[in-house]
Amino acid sequence: MSPLLSARGWGWRWNARRAHAVQGLDLEVEAGERVLLLGASGAGKSTLLAGVAGLLDGGPDGTGEEEGELLVDGVPAQQARQRAVEAGEGRARTGLLLQDPQAQTVLARVGDDVAFGLENHAVPPERIWPRVDAALDDVGLRLPRDHPTSRLSGGQRQRLALAGVLALQPQLLLLDEPTAMLDPEGAAALRGVVAERLAATGAGLLLVEHRVDLWVDLVDRVVVLAPGGGVLADGPVWRVLDERGDELAAAGVWLPGRSAAPGRGGRAQPRRSGTAGDGLLSLEGVAVGRRGSGARVLTGVDAQVREGSFTALRGVNGAGKSTLALAVAGLVPPVSGRVRAHPALAGGLAARRRRRPWGSSAAADDPAGWAPRDLVSRIGSVFQDPRHQFVAQTVADELAVGPRRLGLSEEEVDVRTTELLERLRLDRLARANPFTLSGGEQRRLSVATALATRPRLLVLDEPTFGQDARTWAELVDLLAGLRDAGTAVVAATHDVELCDALADTTWWIGDGRLRVEALVGAP
Amino acid sequence: MSTGLLDPGAIRPTVLARSNPVTKLAVATLLAVVLLLSVDVVTAGTAVLLEVLALPLVGLGMGGLLRRSAVLLVAAVPVAVLTVLVGVDSGAVLLDAGPLSISTGSLESGAAVGLRVVAIALPGVVLLATTDPTDLGDALAQVLRLSPRFVLAALAAFRVVDVLAEEWQQLGLARRARGLGGDGLLAGVRDLAGRVFVLLVIAVRRAAVLATAMEARGFGAGEGQGADRTWARPSRLRASDAVVVAGGVLLAATATAAGVLAGTWQLLLT
Fold first, then answer.
1. Positive or negative: CA dihedral A178, A181, A187, A189
2. Are B66 and B170 within one domain?
3. CA triplet A257, A260, A266: central angle to 5 degrees?
4. Phi and psi (nearest 5°) for A97?
5. ipTM of this model?
6. Is the residue at A385 inside a domain?
7. What pLDDT is recorded for position B264?
8. Are B58 and B248 in contact (CB under 8 A)?
9. For residue B73, what are the domain limits?
10. How far is A372 from chain B (nearest CA, A)?
11. Structural domain for A461, as ranges
12. Residue A273, pLDDT above cutoff 60
């Protein structure tokens, strides 16, 4: 019997690119086999999955150039997809799940979204709905068919997309970093569903994922792709991870049993709260609410941020972490109560401040009322999606935006830019467009832009979300260094390891309240 | 997104609300075309009156209707006022202030124009308020036989609008966080252009991922191969749809007849 998947000297080059995304690949996967696909970013893992899914068209009007052959069930992958659709039974050879939950929802109602694939496979309507209900049940989404997809959380959305894939009963599940954008609960739930469905259906798995620790028990074989093309290592999980562990860790793969945290006892260690300095910012009876509806999600918040402290803002999704972070960062005023900047943070703003012509009563110690250029030199913000913050054409210009806004001389701007480029290993990318960087590079750049104006307070929203182990360790080192130099850091995060490594204060959010927990004791 | 216009909540499922979206679209188009033929108070007024009387059949209360059509009603008022002030005068002049004047004739055409906007807009509001976009897509593809590729792409794009609205807000906050904004109109316009550009970049990337996800689920693979996609929600015309169309024709005919009998009806093109 021929293997389910067979690549022989397979390669793919996208039309606009000079280099091949994949080249000279030889790989066979038997039916029901579970394979973890590793490799440095740019090794062509996602391209391979798209190829196996039959989505790459190497024809005259296609999106690229194909070489060698990529067979699914003995026929070229694209043809295999075509035949499965034409058979009218709603059985796909492969099912592909991508990383971004938001970007994969097709329709406005839960049931319709699952039915979409079955309709495309020309399944008669009366046989569609029972399969939709079964698929929703299989992924644990017990919602009515007409539930709006816009009301789903990220984790639910990803399970919905999986239901759409599973409804087509694929023989081989292709997962492309399926949990990279989910919180820990969402990731665990998705992994659980995948494990259960693989056991129930006997389908095979081809998985691309940095978080090896989360998935390692589910796969029986690891294939490491070489960046230049071909296979670097291939074999049983533990053998490959043992033999190639150092190489993989250096490439940023999260390996089980190896913490990415840089040497404990080094800089990255929580301080005891007693060592923190002066207060920078106080929250006094603050309530924050959803934008638009204004419904309060969090009330009666009293807390303080001190220099040289690291505050972790924790709680389940939707509890109001991001919203509170926006208020602390002076980006959105609270619904009620006061966010008060102490003189150590406001830094002479009161004296310099001219009365506003329209007689606004905004106090000089209210960050939400500050002009943008006054804000950036005092409070820096790093958003969850770095792309939202990019405003310039090159990485170097991006870093210069803030300092220029402060009216610094071009020499000083240059000094700061160069220093940050080196410190965050971005110097070789100085002329690149920020949008063309990899995820890790974009994250480092967004943090660097916030640091360029040397704010006393840095507010971050999920800074380590979806980052590989190497970028994670670099971020932790960087934040530890900033904190030690006296900067206050507030981070909304789900990342337990990040909190363990750095947090001296934790703000727990739940049931509309905030509870402060400080690490006390001698260092 | 809650612009009110597209919020299908709180509608009683009456015959009219449940009729095929294509039927509602046909009736709305018919009324619009008939009302565009003439600008006169009687025809437009009768149409508005009949439409309001028909509201209970739609399952939409007066409150719900006002909430949804506020934007259109607000648009009708300035159009009417403008016509009153600068429109061609006839009859007795009531007020004369240079280029602005009010006469009985311009008052009448002002009222006619305003009423006509309302009469044409109301069926559209009802169509939007009682129709889910997905159902409209189903009907367009199955009843009117529009290309499934086109209809589904439009539906998917419609859903992405929600997401982009959120992104737009995030972009605004992120720019303040970068120290941008707050220095005058010109800089503000330039800043807005930058924000639009980033939104477009993000939208294009999202669209590419969505297209991949759709194709991976077999979208577009069976086309032209004799294996047409099926529709999980069959959309077809029923007898009740004929009743709705007849009602629409009756309404248009009554309004026009009233105008003709009153002698105010006049074909615009002549």
1. negative
2. no
3. 120
4. -115, 125
5. 0.85
6. no
7. 86
8. no
9. 15-137+238-262
10. 4
11. 273-378+455-518
12. no
